[in-house]
Amino acid sequence: MNPPPTNSPPPPPARLRLRVTATAETIVRGGHPWLFADSVREQNRPGITGEVAVLYDRKDAFLALGLYDAESPIRVRLLHAGKPQTVDREWWRARLVAALTRRAGVFGPGTTGYRCVNGESDGWPGLVLDRYGDTLVLKLYSGVWLPRLGEVVELITAELPAGRLVLRLSRNLQECARREFQRTDGEVLLGTPPVGPVIFLENGLFLESDVLQGQKTGFFLDQRDNRRRVEGFAAGRTVLNAFSFSGGFSLYAARGRARAVTDLDLSAHALAAGARNFALNQNLPAVAACPRTAVQAEAFAWLGAAATPRYDLVILDPPSLAKREAERGGAVAAYERLVGLGMRRLAPGGMLVAASCSAHVNTAEFYAAVRRAVAASGRRSVERFTAAHAVDHPAGFPEAEYLKSIGLDCS
Question: Which of 116, 134, 244, 357 is surrounded by the fewest CB atoms within 10 Å?
Answer without folding.
Answer: 134
